[in-house]
Structure formats: C-alpha cells, structure tokens
Design goal:
Blueprint (H helix, E strand, L loop, with lengths): L4 E10 L2 E11 L4 E5 L6 H9 L6 E6 L2 E2 L10 E4 L11 H11 L4 H14 L15 H13 L5 E5 L7 H18 L2 E6 L2 H7 L2 E6 L2 E6 L1 H6 L4 H7 L2 E11 L6 E5 L2 E5 L10 E7 L4 E3 L9 E11 L3 E7 L6 E6 H6 L7 E5 L5 E3 L3
Parallel strand pairs: 3-8, 3-9, 6-7, 7-8
Antiparallel strand pairs: 1-2, 1-4, 4-5, 9-10, 11-12, 11-14, 12-13, 14-20, 15-19, 16-17, 16-19, 17-18
Helix pairs in contact: 2-3, 2-4, 3-4
Length: about 350
Amino acid sequence: MKGHVKLVSLTKHYGTLAAVDGISLELEPGSYCCLLGPSGCGKTSTLRAIAGHEAITSGQVLIDGTGVGALPPARRPTAMMFQNYALFPHLNCLDNVAFSLRMQGMAKSERHARARETLSLVDMQDLAGRMPSQLSGGQQQRVALARALVTNPSVLLLDEPLSALDPFLRVRMRGELRRLQRELHITFVHVTHSQQEAMSVADLVVVMNRGRIEQAASARQLYNAPDSGFVARFIGGHNILTGTIRSSAGPGQGFEMTVPAGRVVGRGDAHALISQEVQVALRADKIHITASPKDGAVNAVVGAVRTIEYHGSAVRMDLEVAGTDEFIVSVAEAEYFAAPVQIGDSVHAVWDAGAVHLLRR
C-alpha cells in the first residue's frame, strides 16, 4: 500500500524563527493523522513542507521511501485541500475537479469521466454543472475534496478543511472524511486546532507546540496518558496538580504526594522521584462532588464553586482550589441534579487513585 510518510529531523526557519524545529514522524500507509496544536505551533508549516509549498531548511521528507524534499508540488504523490477551498469561480464543478487533469494533458472526455466518478464519491454528481457561487459552503467543500482526490494521490493533505463550516455540518463532514479515507485507503494528513475534530477522526494525533512534537499517539492514549502538562491542558478535560512525592510503595505499586490542597495518592512508579516536585493530571470526569468525604480520606480537596455550566449529558463546574488556577469537575447530569449545588457553595471534590496520572515531562 502506498502513502508511507516519513519526516526526518524536519526544520523550517523563517529568518531566525524556527517554525518547525527538527521534528521526526512516521505515518503508516493508509492511516489518518491529525496535526493538532495552537496557532503558531508549526502544524501548517509541516503540512506545507510535505506538500512542497514551503522549502524546508533542513531534514528530509520521504514518501514511500523516496526523498521528495527538493521536488515541486506537482511532482509529489500528494494533493492538498486548502482551507478556503480555492475553487475557480469561472468554472463549474465538473471543470474545477477536472482542472488538474487538464493541466496533465488528459483528453476532455477522459478527464470529465474521471471527474464525474470522483464527484460521485462525495455525492456531488448531480450538481456537476453548477458554478461555485451557486453552492453552499458544504457543497463547495465537497467539490474541493473531489478536486484533490481526482489525481489519485498517495497522500491527501488537508489544511483545516472544516473550519468554515457551521457546527452541525462540521460533524457530518468529518464523518464523511473518515469514510472516504477508509474506502480509498489513502494516507490523510489533516491540520486542525480543534481537539474534538482530531480525536474523532484520527488514528494518530500529533500534538505540536513551538515547532516541536509534544506527543504523537492515539486519541485514547492522549486523553488517558498525556506526556506533559501542555498536552493534558490542550486536549482538555484535565486538571494539573503540582506537588512533591513523599513516598512510593515500589515500582508500579503507587505513590503519595502532597499538594497545596492536601494529599494525593496515585498509581504508577514514582520510586525514583521521592522528594521531587512533579505534576499529575486528573481527568475532570473522574471526580465526584460530595458535602463531606470520609474521615481520613486522601484524594479529597475542598473548593468554592465559581461557575456552573449545563452541557446536557454532563454538568461542568469550576472550583476555587488552593494551588490551582483552574480546577474543573464534570459530573453526569443525573449525579448533579440528585444533589445540586450553587455558585459560592463550598464542596469537596473526591476521586480514586486510578484517576491520577503522573506526568513524565
């Protein structure tokens, strides 16, 4: 299967600024990868370096074992779908999709036949004669996607393809992208700043920060075992507690630490970290609210309720807890309304040791 992408010590400088700072990454053929991170983290520069729209400063871009770093975009086995779709306003849907085939010198009848076939993949065959101005945003996106797919690329590069869509259509279209990727067995590299978008479609989520890769893993691993405080905060739904390891029962047996709000017990190997300051991540949906925890309980902190947000299936609260800038709790709707609290109430947040994840960076 084609579409094996490998980046080796890839660097891209703009003057003295390192937009991409020596990253290495390998994508399996036919996989769906999302490059995720805040603005300025280097994800779009990485995508454009793979496409050939940015000249790399150093390092290698290999596709199917061949170095393509010096090749122009037209000679790479890639296609790119741009954020603004970039459809030609004077061409109808069919000719927009067929345009790259026309540039390759393909006969009109053949390129139109292939363009119609590709439009059918995105359910736009019935609108082939329409002009871009006659299409909705979602329809324009489908045409742009068909135009990228018509050349049968080994790697499809998508630059924030859903950002211009309304929330309802965004959910629908990310499902369509995932369906197409699986059906066509093409490697997708998708840039986004949306955690939910990345986690819902990708086999591999690559979290970037300041031109470097913070962590590359499955969505489930990122959510349950973030490597760093940055990843935990950016993925969302985590609290970060800073404290000092006081004891450890041995490798894999658990540890105890002190934080400004009290004592925390977790699972994992912290034997080599005794007396050191560390950070742990605590998922907001693993925390429960109670009026009074059991006597002598660890993993129980007290805080005043600052905000309450109803999210349908869950209720999110922000507590004022010592030693934290933010302490969020997300409880099931039924659990909250069985014993509702109000802003300003003092409550106890409690959790099990298994909810505590020791951050290694």
